[in-house]
């Protein structure tokens, strides 16, 4: 039965992601804003709902390792797996604000979370814990960042009009805006439901195969909750609109680090026991490699070679986890 539910969950994800991309592009065209901003906010936050659900549930059940492992695994999968696959399908440019504002801020947030989550490095402290104060700080950072993005966008409305992607196509272009929003919200709901269906069946299968909970949190759980971003990225790339995938990944990773961990640790402090320091290091390295794309091969462009390197890095990290 779990195999059937796995297929059904994946089918719902594919269907919902297709309509979500169409509705998002149509909304972007109507509002005269770039697809990147749509990906950073509506799609990025909406498709991170499975991670939010899993992390809060883990906090309430004193499973800090699952909450943190879910975020680490999701962020690594978002960068290495999702962007790697999207770039291999169709290379895409990296916009100016992405390389000057969003990626550097993501690097800062990743390092900050890694440091405050490793309290055992401080003499006299034995537990690695995200306390409520840490959670409040992360939530304030998230609100500040979103305000920063909106304010910067409003400073130059002419540039906002120029950035609108005229080549992006959508079967929903010209539809009533209320209908577009209704489709987008319904698609997000299907993404969440399909993701949870896939996640539950995958966890059951993983336990049946004898995989430990520590590995499940960073691999099966993380990939399961990241499936909306993966499917959305593949659909966006196939529709020749892969910029949406990068905005989606950056928005999702920032949402994971600041809003999800912030909310979960504010609800109840997260104590991490079995999360390895190497997992934080891999997350940091993945984020730095995202910035290196700006400087290597074809500058300011995510090309197929870099996509393959990212995909290979994800496979290597997964093999390391299974061996560990």
Explain what this protein looks like in three dimensions.
α4 (about 65-90) runs antiparallel to α13. The protein contains 13 helices and 4 strands. The chain is globular, with a radius of gyration of 19 Å. About 75% of the residues lie in helices and about 5% in strands. The protein has helices at about 1-30, 35-45, 50-60, 65-90, 95-115, 130-155, 155-165, 175-210, 215-220, 220-240, 245-265, 275-290, 305-324, and strands at about 90-95, 130, 270, 300. The protein has a single domain (about 1-324), classed as A middle domain of Talin 1 (Up-down Bundle). It is mainly alpha-helical and about 325 residues long. Mean pLDDT is about 80; it is low at about 160-170. The strands form 2 sheets. A two-stranded antiparallel sheet has the order 1-4. A two-stranded antiparallel sheet has the order 2-3.
Write the layout of secondary structure elements.
Elements: H1 2-31, H2 35-46, H3 49-60, H4 64-89, E1 92-93, H5 96-116, E2 128-130, H6 132-155, H7 157-163, H8 177-209, H9 213-218, H10 220-238, H11 243-267, E3 270-272, H12 277-292, E4 301-302, H13 304-323
Antiparallel strand pairs: 1-4, 2-3
Helix pairs in contact: 1-2, 1-8, 1-10, 2-11, 3-4, 3-11, 4-10, 4-11, 4-12, 4-13, 5-11, 5-12, 6-11, 8-10, 10-11
